[in-house]
Specification:
Blueprint: E1 6-11, H1 24-38, E2 42-45, E3 48-49, H2 50-55, H3 68-71, H4 78-100, E4 108-112, H5 119-127, E5 131-134
Parallel strand pairs: 1-2, 1-4, 4-5
Antiparallel strand pairs: 2-3
């Protein structure tokens, strides 16, 4: 009876980690995707299926350091720092879009709208599938 079998939940956020329990957005998306999966849908979050996200385990003791270009931020004016961050966001979004485009074609895209993200719209047009956009700010 379901018209949609495979759903792509798109959160084009640089360095997005669905299993980060300290991220409100990641927790909401995980809960939402889990409900869809329990409803019998095949759910992808970005380029991985929900089960693959659950199997990814990071060491709790792992400490991620900030990239070098942000360590010396007090030496650069805020406008320059923001410009560098924007360039990096757009670059990572473009890379993630190319990775996501390699998954099997979904029947529906549910997109979390974020800054600098048009990838979901581009993919929906490419695959000719409906898109539902959610803005949570």
């Amino acid at each position: 009876m379901n018209k949609f079998k495979r759903i792509l939940v798109s959160a084009i956020i640089p360095d997005f980690n669905l299993m980060n329990r300290y991220s409100a957005v990641a927790s909401v998306i995980y809960s939402f995707a889990d409900v869809l999966r329990k409803g019998g849908f095949e759910v992808y979050i970005n380029n991985l299926q929900l089960e693959e996200w659950e199997n990814k385990v990071e060491s709790r003791n792992e400490i991620k350091s900030q990239p070098t270009y942000f360590r010396f931020n007090k030496f650069f004016p805020k406008r320059i720092r923001e410009l560098v961050k924007d360039v990096l966001v757009f670059k990572k979004n473009k890379q993630l879009k190319s990775i996501i485009s390699k998954i099997p074609k979904p029947d529906l895209i549910i997109s979390w709208i974020t800054y600098g993200n048009s990838a979901s719209i581009d993919l929906a047009q490419k695959w000719k599938v409906p898109i539902v956009s959610i803005f949570d700010n």
